[in-house]
Structure formats: C-alpha cells, structure tokens
Design goal:
- Two copies of one chain form a homodimer.
- By secondary structure, chain A is α+β, with helices and mostly antiparallel strands.
- Chain A contains eight helices and 13 strands.
- In chain A, a hairpin with a 2-residue loop joins strand 12 and strand 13.
- The longest helix of chain A has 27 residues.
- The first copy, chain A, binds a DNA duplex through helix 7.
DNA sequence: GAAAAGCTGTGATCGGAGTCACTGGGCCTG
DNA sequence: CAGGCCCAGTGACTCCGATCACAGCTTTTC
C-alpha cells in the first residue's frame, strides 16, 4: 500500500477503515463499488487548492484524509473562512446542484487525500442509489448548520473577544488526550491555524486577534506553546460567551 | 373555494396553479397525490410564528402563499434575519434531518398559507419518491447559498451603507412593473420590512439604518413613499458596492 | 376620535476595533 | 551564517457605528 505525505493512502473505498465514522462514505456495498469506479483519488500537500471560488463546477470532492478550509474573498482581497471541513465530508455540492460557480476556495490545511467525482458521474450515482441522496442531504444540512453558526457568531456576538472565546471553546470540544503533568481541569488543544486565519474566521483583523489572545494569556486563561494551546480557566472563557 | 386573508387558499396541491414555478412543489403526479394525503394546510395572519428557535423538530412546512422571515436570536435578545423565504420553499429541513432543534424562528411577513408535514411522514415520503430527495437537495442548496451570501454580506463588507446599498440592489432585481409617470431608468420596489428588520438583516442598529437611508435620500439616490421605494440613481448605489 | 402602540428621524456621546507602523522571533534556504 | 520570509506582539491614532434620549408621525385599538 502506497505511503506518502506521512499518511496511508486509501485506494479502495470498500476497504476504508474509517468509513463507518464518516459523514458521507458509510454507504451500502453496492454503492461503494460504484463509487470505487467513478472516483479519482488525488493526494495534495498542505496549502493545495482543490477548487477556486468563481470557477465553473466540475464535480465534487470527498475529503478522505486531512482538513481543508473553505474561504470566500471580497473584491478588495479581504477573505473570510466559511468553515473547516473534516475528513469524510463532501465538498462542492452546492455548486454542482445549482450548476453555479463554486462558492468558496478550498485549501488543504494539512497533507490530504481527496476523491474527485465528476458532475455527471455524481448525478447518476445519486439517481441510482437513494442512500446517496440521504447522505447528500445530511452533508448539505451540516453545511447549513455551520453557516448559520457562523452568521450567529459574526452577527450576534457583540465583541471580538467573545467570538474568539467561543471559537476556542468550540475547539475544546475535541481536546487532545490528557498527558502527564497537566492539571485536572486543564484542556489541551491543537491549533494549526495562524492568527491571520483566526481573524478571517471571526471576521476581524490579525492585530486584534493578537491583542485578544495576549489578553487571555495575561489573565491566565490560556497558555500557547506553538500549536499546543492549553485552556487553564475554562469557566472564565465561558463567562465571556453570552449566546 | 375558500377565501380568507385576501388570498385564495390552495387546498389541492395537484391543482395548484403555481406549482411549476415553485422550488419544491413541482413533483410528479404520484408524489403530489401522496403529498396531498400527508399535508395539513393552515392559514396564518401576518406576524404568526410557524416554529420557534430551539424547539424540538416536529416536521416541515411548505410555504404556499406569503413570505416568511427566518430569524435567530442571541441570549441578550439581539436578533438577526437569516433569510426571507419565498412561496414554494420548504422550511425546517435542517432541523428534521439532523434531528436537532429548529435553527430559526419562522415568522410570516404577510398573511400566508403553509402545509405542515410531520417528521415521520416526510421521511417516508422522501424514501418513497426519489424526486422528493432531489427537491430537498435543491432547497438545502438554496439555503446554503443564502447563508453564504449573508456571511459575505456581514463579514466582508466594510461599511453599513455598503451593506444597505447591496440589499436594496438585490431587491431591485425583482422590481415592480413600470407605471406611468416614472422616468425610464428609475426602478420601483416594494419594501415591506421595517427599518428595524432591515437592521437585523444587515447586522446593525435601527438608528444607523435610518441615517443611511436619509443620506441616500438626500443624495437623490432613493425616494421612499411608504412601502414603495424608487431607486433614482442605481449607478451611484452600485458604486458603493465593491464586492 | 382619543389613547396607545409602533415606526421613523436626528442629535450627542463614547468606545471598540480597524489601520498604520514598527519590532522581534522562528524557520527555511542558498 | 547571513539574508529573506512569515508570523506574532504592541503602540498610536482615528473613526464608524452602537447607544441613549427624545420628538414627530402613522397606524391600530377600543
């Protein structure tokens, strides 16, 4: 089995070990076999662009390994992160269904594997297997929920510190496993986004993110060592969040 | 045929005159027949609440007549409009599919008719008729696109005047029919939202909306007479918008 | 038709956060 | 190891827009 980019490439969907835990891929065997036929697997380094906002839709991507950020950009070059896609998600659905340009630029945040399926193949695939339609509906539902969450976050939070606290707490829902030498109520998380990207996520400027994080650190709420952040005072962070 | 609320109630989906122009209802006859069996038609006055944010999902609504606004509210009572739903849309899909509380409060903006379908009936309906799945995917796609547009509007526009100009121009895409006594390049639109609601739409305060509209009027770009607004200088409004 | 409730217009004030400008640290690369 | 590049931290300044406060209007209600 091929190895590259420091992860194992999944060439055969029917034998994928993660399948059951994934939003899209947990399909009946027949459908999986068909998927196997129409997919084209690619491997991308960090920072690769799967598609560009404004391009005509060519097809959809199933993200097998790695995470990717979906961003949209204004005419002046200011950009905002719509969401971070996790392994198992299908990307590009809205473009394909509305036959309109891709809504977002998709950029890998880590070395990633993705399966591409062309528009026509995918439409037939969906017609032939009703389960696929359900999965698609679930993915679209997930997209909507993320988008609504984002709208709430940007539109209803009154201050930037609040938004950032909210974001950190959301990340804390998937903490790193507890290690030795950590106090009981501390939570460690892995943050691979730059401050610039965090700024784009909450719709603010890079400098403000820097200031807010400094502030959290000075208050003893947060410790940041490279990509490992430790939440020292979860309660205080939660007090910032009103929504 | 029953009359009420100043519009004609559509009791039989199979005979609905608007069906073909609607996002959801244009289904094969068999599916329509089934829809006819499982739907429960209700008529609502202006300002009625179809469902409340946070409620457990009971089912979906097909909006037959009238428009409705979907809002989400923060703990402090600040609320934001996610979108305005048009006749023919299905509402409540995300809640039903994720079996999670309704994401938004749905309030009619006009006297409206809506068909309610319970969660279990709808799931069966979808399983039995693949066309329904496609319609659902299209509706969800539409929701996503609206949400992304909203994120762009709130997150990427730099100033409130720009957002309001953008909104007015969006409305201008569905202008009122030209009437006598209007100059050739003028566009008339019907605006039934209050300034408060416009504020919720663009994520700002009511006072700011008032000031911005006053400003547009003073500059001779816009005339407002009750619910009828006339765009006098579309070019200038477009110059405000950069995205 | 008077009272009440809701919508709109405007002034005054103040603070949050965007912008500009610069510094310093980490990391890669030739 | 010097130079470049990217990321992070921080000060100073400015300004947009939220908030408060109130007055004129319109629409509903009894």
């Amino acid at each position: 089995m091929a190895m590259s980019y420091n992860f194992r490439i999944i060439e055969d969907c029917t034998k994928c070990a993660f399948r059951e835990h994934r939003l899209f891929c947990n399909l009946p065997n027949k459908a999986l076999g068909r998927l196997q036929d129409i997919k084209a697997t690619s491997v991308y380094p960090k920072g690769a662009l799967l598609c560009l906002e404004g391009q005509a839709p060519r097809g959809i991507f199933v993200l097998c390994t790695g995470r990717a950020k979906l961003t949209t950009t204004s005419a002046e070059g200011k950009s905002i992160i719509l969401r971070i896609a996790e392994p198992g998600e299908v990307l590009g659905l809205t473009a394909v269904f509305s036959n309109a340009p891709y809504e977002a630029t998709i950029e890998t945040l880590e070395p990633s594997q993705a399966n591409f399926i062309s528009m026509t193949d995918f439409v037939h695939f969906m017609k032939d297997y009703p389960d696929v339609g359900m999965k698609v509906a679930q993915q679209l539902t997930h997209n909507c929920r993320c988008a609504y969450g984002e709208i709430r976050s940007i539109g209803l939070s009154n201050s930037v510190p609040e938004k950032i606290a909210k974001l950190v707490l959301k990340w804390a829902e998937q903490p790193l496993p507890a290690s030795t030498g950590r106090k009981p109520n501390e939570v460690a998380i892995r943050v691979t986004l730059t401050q610039e990207e965090i700024a784009q996520f909450v719709g603010t400027s890079r400098e403000t993110v820097s200031r807010v994080l400094s502030d959290f650190r000075k208050k003893g709420w947060l410790r940041m060592k490279g990509v490992i952040w430790t939440i020292l005072d979860k309660d205080s962070l939660e007090d910032m969040v009103t929504t």
